[in-house]
Amino acid sequence: MTDIGGLADRFLDACRRRKMMAATAESCTGGMIVAALTDIAGSSAVVDRGFVTYSNEAKIDMLGVSAATLAAHGAVSRETALEMASGALARSRAGIALAVTGIAGPDGGSAEKPVGLVWFGLALAGRAPLAEKHVFDNRGRDFIRRETVRTALELGLAALEDGQVTGTP
Fold first, then answer.
1. Using the 8-state DSSP alphabet, how is residue 89 labeled?
2. Would you give per-residue pLDDT tens digits along the chain (169 residues)?
3. Exposure pattern of 130-154 as b/e (b: 16+ CB <10 Å)?
4. Cβ(85)–Cβ(121) under 8 Å?
5. Are 100 and 28 in contact (CB under 8 A)?
6. Phi, psi (deg, nearest 5) at residue 29
7. Is 138 helix (H, G, I), strand (E, B) or coil?
8. Which of 1, 23, 38, 85 is 20 to 30 Å apart from 96, CA to CA?
9. How far out from the chain centre does Cα 126 lie?
10. What is the pTM assigned to this prediction?
């Protein structure tokens, strides 16, 4: 497992090299991604803002996620992750936005959407947003949230360092 602090530092360096600000839109992590970034001295040069949108109302009000999307697909969906990432990009000075929405547990899972399901959204200025789905082992809420932070930073790094983003538009 890769160290989250090291990933956050590499992500910030990649943003600096590209002269790009970053934003996050977080649901299941409650701000842990932006906290990992802002734990690093000098991060204010590239971190614009973090949106913590735990409720559906916050997703609508702060990010512009469509109420119709939430009604049709739910908060934990590809469609919502894409709209969260796009909304964070549009409502900030960022050139890259990382978004996460998932079920960290211990409750809230179902057969279709089990505990550990997380949808990641990634938006880069000038490109269509991408979404990627992960189902983490249900090894507890803390584990799922930490793995979500790690994975989000890895996806952001892939987009910034080598352009190898594997999600789908």
1. H
2. 469 999 999 999 999 999 999 999 999 999 999 999 999 999 999 999 999 999 999 999 999 999 999 999 999 999 999 999 999 999 999 999 999 999 999 999 999 999 999 999 999 999 999 999 999 999 999 999 999 999 999 999 999 987 654 444 4
3. bbbebebebeebeebbbbbbbbbbe
4. yes
5. yes
6. -95, -10
7. coil
8. 1
9. 18
10. 0.94
Domains and CATH numbers, the chain: 4-162 (3.90.950.20)
Name residue 118's amino acid. Answer: V
DSSP 27: S
Give the separation between CA 25 and CA 29, rounded to whole angstroms: 9
3-class SS shares of the chain: helix, strand, coil, % to 5 = 45, 20, 35
Phi, psi of 47 (to 5 degrees): -90, 115
* Cα distance from N-terminal residue to C-terminal residue, the chain: 28
Distances from the Cα of 81 to the Cαs of 12, 34, 44, in angstroms? 22, 17, 25
Residue-level pLDDT at 1: 46
Instruction: Label residue 101 exposed, middle or buried (CB < 10 Å: 0-12, 13-18, 19+).
Output: buried
Q: Distances from the Cα of 24 to the Cαs of 49, 107, 112, in angstroms?
A: 7, 25, 26
Asked if 92 and 21 count as a contact pair (C-beta separation under 8 A), the reply is yes
Q: Is 168 strand, coil or helix? A: strand
